[in-house]
Specification:
This protein is an alpha/beta fold. The chain is 19% helix and 42% strand. The strands form 2 sheets. A 6-stranded mixed β-sheet has the order 1-2-3-4-5-6. The protein has a 4-stranded antiparallel β-sheet with strand order 7-8-9-10, with no helix packed on it. Strand 1 and strand 2 form a beta hairpin.
């Protein structure tokens, strides 16, 4: 059974000298066996609680503002899953994680396989240079 699950996390977002309290949506896309974590915000423990025993096949960062990537390394370390980020957000990533690189670059048009679900990566620069959306046609879903 394919599913999309939401985890709401709270923390801060900092950019250009300002810091704000924010809530973020973290999405788990997959099935009973495998999931893709979409955005890695604030609270690795809360995210892992919803993942349960499923295999995490990747941690997709839709962009590299700190409130979308701050627990990506902790999730990768806990699950063994690769961190995936579009290379145009490399500068933003380094602001939060100067000592760690994403494991793999996302490319426009790439298809990620999660269980029985195909997830298409769409490079959508604007909010951030490396912003991506995820399109799942069979679920009628566009994650932005």
């Amino acid at each position: 059974m394919r599913s999309v699950e939401r985890v709401v996390t709270s923390g801060t977002f900092s950019l250009d000298g300002g810091t704000w309290e924010v809530e973020n949506n973290v999405w788990l896309l997959g099935d009973a066996e495998q999931v893709l974590i979409v955005d890695a915000a604030h609270d690795a423990e809360a995210i892992l609680k919803v993942v349960r025993e499923r295999e995490v096949v990747g941690i997709v960062c839709t962009h590299a503002h700190d409130d979308h990537v701050n627990v990506a390394p902790a999730l990768a370390d806990a699950t063994g899953a690769p961190i995936l980020l579009h290379p145009a957000d490399d500068v933003l990533w380094k602001m939060t994680h100067p000592g760690r690189r994403p494991d793999r670059e996302l490319a426009d048009g790439e298809v990620l396989r999660v269980g029985s679900v195909d997830v298409q990566v769409l490079h959508t620069p604007g909010h951030a240079p490396g912003a991506v959306c995820l399109h799942v046609p069979e679920l009628g879903l566009l994650m932005s």
